[in-house]
Amino acid sequence: MRLLLAATCLATIAVPTAPVLAQAVIGSGVAASTAANSAERPIGFAASAPTDAALVVLTADKSLPAEAPLSAEERKVIEAALANAGFAAKANEIVSLRGIGARPRIMIVGLGKDGGSKAVMEAAGKAAQDLRSEKAPVAFVGAGAAALMADAALGYALGQYRFDRYKVTTGSAPSTAPVAVIGGEATAAMAAWTRRHAATAEAVRFTRDLSNEPASAVYPDSFIARTREAFAGVPGVSIEVLDEAAMRKLNMGSILGVGQGSPRGSRLLLVTYKGSDAAPLAMVGKGITFDSGGISLKPGSGMWRMKGDMSGAAAVVGAALSLAKSKAPVHVVAVAALAENMPDGNAQRPGDVVRTMSGKTAEIFSTDAEGRMVLIDGIEYVAATRKPAAIVDVATLTGAKVTALGDEYAGLFGRHEGLVGAVQMAAEATGEAVWRLPLHPNYAEDLKSDIADIKHGTEGVPPGAGHGAHFIGFFVDPATPWAHIDIAGNEMSDSAKPLTPKGATGFGVRLLDALARTWQP
After folding, report:
1. CB neighbours of 371 closer than 8 A, spacing ≥ 6?
2. What is the full DSSP assignment across 184-200?
3. Inter-residue contact 496 to 403 (CB < 8 Å)
4. What is the dihedral sign for C-alpha 217, 221, 223, 225?
5. Model confidence over 80-129: pLDDT tens digits?
6. Distances, alpha carbon 348 to alpha carbons 248, 249, 328, 362, 520, in Å
7. What does the pLDDT look like over 333-375, one tens digit per residue?
8. Which positions ≥6 away from 319 have C-beta within 8 Å?
9. Which residues does residue 493 pair with via DSSP β-bridges, in sequence order?
10. Is the separation of the CB atoms in 337 and 256 below 8 Å?
């Protein structure tokens, strides 16, 4: 009886007639959002301030500028309020007042003793963040001449940035009432804004968006798609993409090795903007769209930040966008070395040896030191195919750089004094600060490999940032001017600063834009 029952039960079990197929969709297949970020305030220029606008008064001392549209009684009340508040007009010092005259708000912002371009930009950016919830239009006075008025507009544009496309329960959208920078040179200021600053603001916004996006939304192919969209119709621009098949033909084992554990294929993206006939400046960016550490898995705490490990690639493409849209008379090639570093049965292992496009070999000591690996194939390819006058690479490369310099400076390495000096000058002009670190000859000894041309790092032996820079430089022709900028820690901010709201900063776009305009071989 028991045997008969067992046979009956077995007969009712359904046996699949075909093998179950693995899920064909990468990720969930459901986009987290189809919305755009909320609209920002449009920025313009005018000779006089609208009467219904919140008034922002910029001042380098305790006095109110003569052009501020205030009655004698209003000035008296404001000056008394400033005295009571101990206002000293220090940089970005703010006193905000309501109930004075018909204006919804009057904000006094200090410029500090300098009062120049950077001070005006930061004051406007700080005001933009403090006015985030203000519904009324906004008018700025006290910026100065046309160039400074345009700087105020750029500062406001950078400061008002927000990334909120995934917030669906926040209630009413922020105000889109306009911003006007007021002054006697409004027409000239508008020309300066249109000629250059508007493109820079757009490029920084593009770069920040890419870095803020989750890795489920930005991966090698979608990074490329967004780049194509951003450059659509821009004159003088050409785009080249190498897929994995093309890179295998070129023996780019370094970038391919980093991405071999991910179902999302690695890509090499080159954006060329030719605004002159000179040999190009090559800007090569690390584009790790998510860095789990691979087999050398990172700790879980803080791993979410690794969605921004492609910020170097975003910065170089953003700089090219700024230059191209402003029709700068320069020739640049932005190279985004794109891969996703994931653990998998097919992932690269510590101890593996890879060859690069040039045939040089590197021994892997940790799969979590992957950024330098994608960069070197990108550098070798652009050097061979574009013959650049100089190469600058930008990467969120090492935690050691953060330990050394925090987020106040990017780490700068280089062996060509002219190029290093040009980077330093561009950093000073834009406020995207760098600090030069050494390339000691002993680093070559530290990175000797027993089985390959070079070992790509060490196990906890300092200096990590210097070793990373030396490794990259090993793959650059010594005759080619080269600089390495380590932006680890600079790409994301845990708190708002005048020109960088919390989150992705877009660091490097303005620095590289200025460098391309001033660098002379």
Report:
1. 286, 288, 291, 309, 312, 395, 396, 397, 468
2. TTHHHHHHHIIIIIHHH
3. no
4. negative
5. 999 999 999 999 999 999 999 999 999 999 999 888 999 999 999 999 99
6. 16, 19, 42, 13, 40
7. 999 999 999 999 999 999 999 999 999 999 999 999 999 999 9
8. 203, 283, 332, 334, 508, 509, 511, 512, 513, 516
9. 503
10. no
The contacts of residue 422 (CB under 8 Å, 6+ apart) are: 515, 518, 519, 520
Element (H, E) at 383: helix 371-386
Instruction: Output the six-digit token pair for 429.
Output: 């002009």
Options 298, 305, 360, 502, the catalytic residue: 298
How many C-alpha atoms does 195 have within 13 Å on its Cβ side? 12
How does the average pLDDT of the chain come out, rounded?
A: 94
Residue 202, number of CB atoms within 10 A of its CB: 17
Longest CA–CA separation in the chain, Å: 108
Distance CA(339)–CA(225), nearest Å, equals 15
In the prediction, which pLDDT does 495 show?
Answer: 94
Please tell me the predicted confidence (pLDDT) of residue 4. 43
Among candidate residues 103, 196, 286, 372, the one labeled active-site is 372
Give the mean pLDDT of 487-512: 97
Taking each helix axis from N to C terminus, what angle separates 146-159 and 117-130, rounded to the nearest 10 degrees?
A: 40
Q: What is the pLDDT of residue 62?
A: 83
Please spell the DSSP secondary structure of 223-282, one letter per residue. HHHHHHHHHTT-TTEEEEEE-HHHHHHTT-HHHHHHHTTSSSPPEEEEEEEESSSSPPEE
Annotated active-site residue 76? The verdict is: no
Q: Please state, in angstroms and rounded to a whole number, the distance separating the CA atoms of residues 493 and 428.
A: 20
Active site residue 41: no
Choice between 224 and 170, residue whose per-residue pLDDT is larger: 224
Q: Which pLDDT band holds residue 460 (cuts at 50, 70, 90)?
A: confident
How many residues are present in the chain?
521
Whether residue 459 is predicted with pLDDT greater than 80 in this model: the reply is yes
The pLDDT of residue 73 is above 60: yes
3 state DSSP class of 47 = coil
Domains of the chain: 43-165+174-184 (3.40.220.10), 202-518 (3.40.630.10)
